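If you are new to this repository, start here. Below is one unmodified record pulled from the training split, so you can see the exact layout before writing a loader.
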Amino acid sequence: MKAHRLPDGLRAELQSPWGPVVGEDQLDALIPALDREASIAVGDATTANLLRRGFIPRVQVCDSRVMRGWVGPVAGEYESRIRVRNPAGHITEEAYGALITAIRAKQRCLVEVEGEEDLLALVAMAEAPEGWFVLYGQPRRGMVVVRVDRAIKNRAKSLLLAMPRVDITV
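And here is the target side for that same chain:
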């Protein structure tokens, strides 16, 4: 299987938030500004925090782990589910394609990842239409809120192009 591999030289750039970081105490005020039909939640804690507040993202990307510890499946609300394999530090073609399919779907979709979903936020920012929201966790700080625009899309695509493509076995 082909995959993009995250080189050590790009890790620092991906560790910095790409948008404002919203703490747990600020989520209730944020929710009305989000668009349910144009939102992607990447990560189990992010998705669970939104669902607890009655906000159901259009696309939910989860791997049943928080901070690499097993938490089990998020009890999301979705009409379709796509299961993919995506090892840590990689973005498989399978996972990349599934996210594109989920974004284009006319219904709520869960992308259930066996492995790790963290890097799929990059794919979400590269492939979501302008104006969509991508929400993902910033460890020990909160949730990053990114409104996709041309600059975000270009930055994400540039980083994806900088990641070498490798053959992997999953």
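Two things worth knowing about this chain: Helices lie at 8-15, 27-30, 44-52, 93-104, 120-127, 150-162. Residues 12 and 159 are 12 Å apart (CA to CA).
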